[in-house]
Amino acid sequence: MNQYTVLLVDDEEEVFQVIMKKLDWESMGFSIAGYARNGVEALEMAEELQPDVVMTDIKMPYMDGLELSRRLNRDFQNIHIIIFTGFDEFEYAKEAVHLEVEEYMLKPINATELSDCLKRLKDTLDREREEKLNVTRLENYFNAALPVLQNNFFVSLIEGRVTEENCGKFFAAYQIDMKGPYYGCAVFHTSEHHAMSVEHEIKERLATEWKSRVFSYLGNTLMLIELSSEDAIVQFTDSCDRFCKWAYRVMGAVVTAGIGRVCDNMANIKTSYDGAREAVSYRVLYGTKRAINIAELAPKEQETTLQPEDTRMHDLFKAIHLGLKEEIEKVVVNEIEKLHSNAQTVSQYNLAIMEMVGAFYRFCANNFLDFNDHLHGIQNPYETIPQMDESTLTAWMQEVSVELGEQLKNARNSTSRRLVTDAQNLVRERYMEPDLSLDTVCSKLGVSNSYFSSMFKKESGSSFITYLTDYRMQQ
Question: What DSSP character marks residue 311?
Fold first, then answer.
């Protein structure tokens, strides 16, 4: 049975004794916490003892019972108040109903009435305690489930299942404090047997450096970050690059971090996630144990949304970006097989072929290429290509796709060479400045240290620091 405490307040000590002797307090679920002889003393004791009930007289020196009730209601709203008073004060006491006093009782105290009063009060206290316990249980359940709810929400975000108007509501409901104004996504790909330890270290190291949320998705560790400016993604890329190198050096874990494009609304984080996932796939070109920022790859693809008819071509376009001839030819065969198996009529087949040609035109336009340069004499592709048999169509698509992959690769190499040339020109112009360094050059060029360093060494055969030092020595 719940036991509640009572503080008695009266300037006449014999009243205490009468109240104590008339009732079996313990059997009713109460115990006397203490005695006070005036309102001032009662306030001090209430703060110390935190009683559930205060029984007080009205007429007392220093502070009367009504003033005490006002103070208790103001400072200790969970305390229930019973006022007992003489017959001539009863009308005065009834006028103070706004004090929310639980009961008014006349002296001399009637044991039966007081017992009934305390039983009613006990029922009230029991209900209040049960309600508080239920609320506490719900809060505990919610707090225990909150990390899972947050992770599920983040998964919904990167899958594009949260609208912009609902995003703020979920942030408030799930207690997520990410105010931006910019956001980005990183995907960390690692070997399976290192996945758990790598995720733990990401939380311990990167997540303490950058305001972010870390969770697992489809076997990778994802990191959603909050950025103060769009340019901050460059510093974040370098932080991820340092982490990947540290993970391999200390843990032996081969980690590749893909960094997506910056967005200005968390509801659009899916675009950043798609870019981060795409960046990870470039590890076959740029190597593992490093961070790859999709925005730094050349040529800089325009940020476009795939048309519905382009979605099924995603694997082919991805293979073209990577530029691996064997992979491109394999994916083309798969695309042709799907094309023939899905088309039920000649009309459906011809329509699918024309949609495929349109997808090639859009892909080339988004990557600053001209598809007409790769048609090999075909004047009207929308009429001619649907007439090709399966083997001819497969050979044509393989040839065109490989050519596009080579052109993209050449464009990347050209951009890399241009980046190195710009850096070398900066050195020639400013080599005498003592603060010229890798950091200042990368800041000037708007790229991360990791991407610039790998490109510079690949194109020039030496690190940037070595080049800068040698040039200064020559001068």
Answer: G
Q: What single letter denotes the amino acid at residue 6? A: V
pLDDT in tens, 338-388: 888 887 777 888 888 888 888 888 888 887 788 888 888 888 888 888 888
HEC states along 114-126?
Answer: HHHHHHHHHHHHH
Q: Tell me the Ramachandran region of residue 446: left when phi exceeds 0, alpha when psi lies from -120 to 50, beta otherwise.
A: left
Strands 30-36 and 4-9: what pairing?
parallel
Q: Is 386 helix (H, G, I), strand (E, B) or coil?
A: helix
* Dist. CA 207–CA 209, nearest whole Å: 5
> In which element (H, E) is residue 106 found?
strand 103-106
For 106, other C-beta atoms within 10 Å of its C-beta total 14
> Does the pLDDT value for residue 236 go beyond 90?
yes
- Distance (Å, rounded) from C-alpha 394 to C-alpha 103? 92
Beta bridge partners of 255: 190
Residue type, 109: I
Q: Are 243 and 154 in contact (CB under 8 A)?
A: no
Chain segment 9-53, per-residue pLDDT in tens: 988 877 777 777 778 888 888 888 888 989 899 999 998 899 999
Give bridge partners of residue 256 from the DSSP assignment.
189
